[in-house]
Specification:
The complex is a heterodimer of chains A (199) and B (234).
Chain A (H helix, E strand, L loop, with lengths): L19 H4 L24 E9 L9 E6 L24 E5 L5 E7 L4 E2 L5 E2 L3 E7 L6 E7 L23 E4 L5 E3 L2 E2 L9 E2 L1
Parallel strand pairs in A: 1-10, 1-11, 8-9
Antiparallel strand pairs in A: 1-4, 2-3, 2-7, 5-6, 7-8, 9-10
Chain B lengths: L33 E2 L4 H4 L28 E9 L10 E6 L24 E5 L5 E7 L4 E3 L5 E3 L2 E6 L8 E6 L18 H5 L4 E2 L10 E4 L2 E2 L13
Parallel strand pairs in B: 2-11, 2-12
Antiparallel strand pairs in B: 2-5, 3-4, 3-8, 6-7, 8-9, 10-11
Classes of the chains: A mainly beta (199), B mainly beta (234).
């Protein structure tokens, strides 16, 4: 079905404080999760990693009612979406995850490290994960990216190059010494405010 | 040619800082957002299988032993792109308060009864034309702490996925003629009157089922024009 050209898109509204039982029930409500924070499928290849952190508001207080969604390519840099006209992933890896922050504002995702994805000119971007942030008090979600501090490709990444040098660290997850865990906190405001993108 | 998602479309959205809605004050970014090009990462998005939406996930009145109390309603409509084309296979999730205005969420403790026969969560996938349909009960208005005597107009929360991660939409559907509209800072955070009207469902007598349920139509328009397949340059 089509209609006349709409006079605009449907405006965003906040996800509010009560999304958990509908979007991230995680066994606590009589409803099932469409998505979880574990993206790993048995057949997927690549380095298993965990990305974790805490979401803070402008007072530096952890945000316990935040929802985070991630979207990423597989280890070969391919998206599980036919709109990516290159070869599709040869696994059941979907590349999408969702989690609600816990009582201490914490989150984590278990996934695989994505491979490089080209920008519109064919220039490789450094491995990255897209992150969308939703919460009570946010009328419209925010978009940011998660990069990895052990990737030499960061130095040539065309998106990081647009970010003032003194703010780049807010986008780069730091690898722990002993295990494949990366840490990245999200600051909605403040001196360390996370870089959010206008896309 | 790439999908095109003009930034101008976002003008319909509310500003992130809206002083009447107090919780935005500590949660809206204070530094300018940085514009970047839309790459494959932004222009692709998740695809679902049939496992994501189970049969009857779109009927919130049959999830428990008995029927929920309240006014049974049908909520249906189409998900469109900005050219008015239906968005097929789009995942539509909703959640809402019960007929008394109480959420099953543990944080909601306002003195209205829970309904053991109503959770308030549902899920549907649009068909080839972009059409979706839910059966539920009409949610009640409820008080909140934003200001003295603050009440939210009755609403249903919607979460919608389109073709791309950047066409993702979370919104709220309202009911026509609600007397609380002039007093709600979340509804009125959308400053453009025509844009606000796009969040209000319309009463649909034609699809109201006699002797059974009133019907409301809520069409959802996502970002995205010129949605022709991408050619890859690499």
């Amino acid at each position: 079905m089509s209609q006349q050209r709409p006079d605009g898109i449907t405006p965003s509204q906040t996800v509010g404080p009560y999304f958990k039982y509908g979007l991230t029930p995680n066994g606590e409500y009589a409803w099932n999760d469409a998505f979880t924070n574990n993206l790993i499928t048995p057949d997927v290849s690549g380095e298993r990693i965990r990305v974790e952190g805490i979401v803070y508001d402008g007072d530096g207080v952890p945000v316990p009612d935040c929802m985070l969604e991630i979207w990423q390519a597989d280890a070969q840099g391919r998206f599980s979406d036919p709109q990516d006209a290159r070869a599709l992933p040869n696994s059941s890896f979907k590349g999408f995850g969702r989690v609600g922050t816990d009582a201490k504002g914490g989150y984590c995702f278990d996934t695989i490290k994505p491979g490089p994805v080209p920008d519109p000119d064919g220039t490789p971007q450094a491995p990255h994960i897209l992150l969308a942030v939703y919460a009570r008090g946010m009328l419209l979600h925010l978009y940011t990216r998660i990069y990895f501090d052990d990737e030499a490709a960061n130095a040539a990444d065309p998106v990081l190059a647009l970010v003032p040098a003194d703010r780049r660290a807010t986008l780069i997850a730091r690898k722990a010494a002993s295990n494949p865990t990366y840490a990245l906190d999200i600051h909605l405001q403040g001196d360390n405010e996370t870089v959010f993108f206008d896309v | 040619m790439n999908f095109v998602y003009p930034l101008a479309s976002n003008a319909s959205h509310p500003p992130r800082l809206s002083l009447g809605y107090r919780s935005t004050i500590k949660r809206a970014p204070q530094k300018p957002l940085i514009p970047i090009r839309q790459t494959l990462s932004e222009l692709t998005g998740p695809v679902y299988g049939h496992e994501t939406v189970r049969e009857n996930d779109n009927d919130l009145t049959i999830q428990h032993k008995g029927e929920p109390l309240g006014e049974r309603i049908i909520v249906h409509g189409h998900v469109f792109d900005e050219d008015g084309r239906g968005v097929p296979n789009a995942l539509v999730e909703l959640w809402q308060a019960n007929a008394c205005g109480r959420y099953v969420h543990v944080v909601d403790q306002h003195p209205a009864p829970l309904d053991p026969n109503f959770t308030g969560a549902g899920r549907a996938r649009t068909d080839a034309s972009g059409y979706y349909r839910f059966v539920t009960v009409k949610p009640g208005a409820y008080p909140w702490g934003n200001h003295h005597n603050a009440w939210r107009p009755a609403h249903i929360h919607f979460s919608v996925f389109g073709h791309a991660f950047i066409s993702r939409l979370v919104t709220q559907m309202y009911f026509p003629g609600d007397p609380l509209f002039p007093f709600d800072p979340i509804f009125n955070a959308v400053t453009d009157e025509k844009a606000r009207a796009r969040m209000i469902s319309s009463f649909d007598l034609e699809n109201t089922q006699p002797e059974w349920a009133l019907c409301y139509r809520f069409n959802i328009v996502l970002r995205g024009r010129n949605a022709t397949p991408m050619e890859n340059k690499s």
